[in-house]
Amino acid sequence: IYAFNTAYTESNLNAITEALLGQGKIPLNKPIHELTPRDLAKYCLNDAEITLNLTTFNHNLVLGLIIL
Fold this sequence. Notes:
The protein is mainly α. Helix content is 59%, strand content 0%. InterPro entries: RNaseH-like_sf (IPR012337), RNaseH_sf (IPR036397).
């Protein structure tokens, strides 16, 4: 079952989040290992928040599909 009617064509966190929620990952202008601890924390927190938003959007649809 495909629940999102071709809302996205790529299967990465940024593409899916932009297509379904209008959000995206924080763009990096240097390798992740060169980020300051503060910038790395912001980057990781943003990833966690958009992942949570994906699993809980549309009345927990994604989470329900995962459990199936």
